[in-house]
Amino acid sequence: MTGLTPFRFRGVVEGFYGRPWTHAQRLDAIEFLGAHGMNTFVYAPKDDPFLRREWREPYTGTDLARIRELVGRSDALGIEFVYCLSPGLSITYASDNDVRALTAKFRSVAELGVRRFGLLLDDIPQDLQHDADRDRFADLAEAHVALIGRVYDDLPAGAALIVCPTVYWGYGDEAYVARLGRGIDPRIDLFWTGRAICSATLDLFDAATFARSTARLPTYWDNYPVNDVAMSHELHVGPYRGRDRHLYRFASGVIANGMELFESSKIAFATIADYLRSPEGYEPEASWQAALREVAGEPDWDAYALFADNVRSSCLSAEDAPQVTRALESFTFRFERGEASAAARELAALADRLLAAADHLLRGPVHNTALIAEGRPWIEAFEIGARAMRCMADLAASGRLAADGPSELFPYLERLREARVRVFGDALTMTLTDLTNPSTVNEGSQVRAGGGRS
Question: What's the pTM value of the predicted model, to 2 decimals?
Answer without folding.
Answer: 0.94
